[in-house]
Amino acid sequence: MAKYKACIGLEMHCEISETNTKVFSSAENAYKEMPNTNVRPLDMGFPGTLPVVNKEAVRKALMASIILNCKQPEFMYFERKNYYYPDMPKNYQITQETKPIPVGIYGVLKFDCKGEEKSVRIDNLHLEEDAASLDHYSTYSTVDYNRAGVPLLELVTAPDFRSAEEAVSFLETMRSIYQYSGISEADSKKGQIRCDVNVSIMDEDLDDSDYSNFGTKVEIKNVNSFGGVRDAINYEIKRQTELKEDGKYDEMEQQTRRWDEESGTTIYMRSKVDAIDYKYFVEPNIPKYKISKEWIEQIRKDIPELPSERLERYMNEYNLSPYDAKNLIKEKAVSDYFDECIALGTDPKSASNWITTRILGYINKENVTIDEIYIRPNMLKDIIDMINSTQISSKQAKDIFYKALEDKKDPKTLVKELGMEQIADDTELRNIITSILDENEENIMKYKEGRTNVLDYFVGQVMRATRGKANPSMASSILKEEIEKR
Ligand code: ADP
Ligand code: MG
């Protein structure tokens, strides 16, 4: 039994990617390869420029607030967080502190962690502008202002996670919520998700609902991947446990560290004892404005089907197992593909089987997305239909599936070209079978004497005669009928 338990709180930053323009300027909200090609004077903090609030970004932020069961504000304000750093040429970031009220406070979200239902309290959710991105080289650094001003949602949880697995399961749930609700692509590869991770430990037998029992927290800044979050938490728990064992934990200062991917360790950056005072004040260039109840209700109605709702639909309407349903909803693109198959009239169970085994297997192996593979939902439907109508066997279907992917050829065309069509025509099979039986008097006798395994021999003969194209179950039942007649 562990002697200590961990308390973990997350600050999850996610760029809102689905708006036309940045949050306060008219620059496009789009990822651009070429640095500094998507920048307006406002993003550079030029004098005389004024911010204009992007309504769609506010709408999406409020949508996230509603999904997370937060309380929404009556009035919207923004604030200035003053600091000097090359990633923010205005020398302040327009953001929202918890007072006045940001886009959401005091929510709660249930999520699944390895089959167990967990719940986390949301402390607050706020909308702010992203900073520029910095790249550091051996003797110089570069700044790319393309990212400056991209709408950013920051979600702050209570310290309710007790393990790295719980924290990562929560992040995965959030990522899919953002994707399904059309708030963000939430792609960590594009740097759209970044996390600050807060970790402390306490004695196992202490009451973890009482904050006075909490240990001193360590904040780990800017972890860019979920794997990084997991490893950083586990490393930090181990490090703090060692300090505890050495009697040094209680004298540890509240501090900020960073995750070093290469060494797999957290590295001390600064003490939080004399934390920076950002001198927040209400942003004077954005008047406070009222958020009407009607608008909130409209946004609530406009929330698209969320992953948890799709899961229910898959299990209740299509009778899929929880395991398959979860596999299908994990990625929105995969779930959309499945829904498209259903809309075309494909049998849900067969579609689910093909997608969760062969398609997911293939895209994981080839490291491509489901949108990139050649077989579209209508082609998958054709393959499944050809099996159901016994035009091809399941073994042939499998071959066709891979050949279609590789040769980028329509499965129906391939079946024709390869002469793969199964012989499932009664008269045709019966003729073949009759001539085989005519030459096998001896084996018919054996069968009639009770050696039923002779039937396998006959099926084998039919297969040989048809070069594998006969439908085996049809062949076997016609064989039985014809032997009976003799
Ligand atoms: P700060 O003022 O340093 O930003 P906050 O109180 O706003 O601190 O909390 C920031 C994050 O730290 C939140 O996610 C919160 O859950 C987490 N946190 C606060 N105290 C602790 C603690 N003792 N152990 C672990 N996480 C904590
Ligand atoms: Mg903070």
Would you give an account of this structure?
- By secondary structure, this protein is of the alpha+beta class.
- It folds into 3 domains: 293 residues, no CATH class; 113 residues, no CATH class; 59 residues, Arc Repressor Mutant, subunit A, CATH 1.10.10.410.
- The chain is built from 15 helices and 15 strands.
- Helix 2 runs antiparallel to helix 3.
- The radius of gyration is 31 Å and the shape is elongated.
- It starts with a strand and ends with a helix.
- Bound molecules: adenosine-5'-diphosphate (ADP) and magnesium ion.
- Adenosine-5'-diphosphate binds next to strand 1, strand 9 and strand 10.
Keywords:
single chain; 486 residues; alpha+beta; Arc Repressor Mutant, subunit A; 3 domains; 8-stranded mixed beta sheet; 3-stranded antiparallel beta sheet; 15 helices; 15 strands; 39% helix; binds adenosine-5'-diphosphate; binds magnesium ion
List the helices and strands and how they pair.
Elements: E1 4-15, H1 55-67, E2 75-76, E3 79-82, E4 92-95, E5 104-113, E6 116-129, E7 133-136, E8 141-144, E9 151-157, H2 164-180, E10 193-203, E11 218-223, H3 226-245, E12 255-260, E13 265-271, E14 281-282, E15 289-290, H4 293-301, H5 307-318, H6 322-329, H7 332-343, H8 348-366, H9 377-388, H10 394-407, H11 411-417, H12 426-438, H13 441-448, H14 454-465, H15 472-485
Parallel strand pairs: 11-12
Antiparallel strand pairs: 1-9, 1-10, 2-15, 3-4, 3-14, 5-6, 6-9, 7-8, 10-11, 12-13
The chain binds adenosine-5'-diphosphate and magnesium ion.
